[in-house]
Amino acid sequence: MKRFLYLALLGLAAVVTRPSALACAACFGKSDSSMAYGMNAGIMTLLVVILTMLSLIASFFVFVVRRAARMDSASETVPPSA
User: With contact defined as beta carbons under 8 Å apart, do 36 and 26 qualify?
Assistant: First the structure.
């Protein structure tokens, strides 16, 4: 375990100290290049997809909670048949 930690820290130090590791190819060059625009469009697309999925999941749970509350209130108003 100690050897793995040592190798991980050594690899991290090697990556961090390199100047080319400070920025990606799109960010390292001109900020108005087509590669930068494409990267920004990709980031926005992924952000929209993630936010859409999270909102759909949240709305599903809101639907389930409301339906459970409605079913619970409906069962209280109906007298038991036994």
Answer: yes
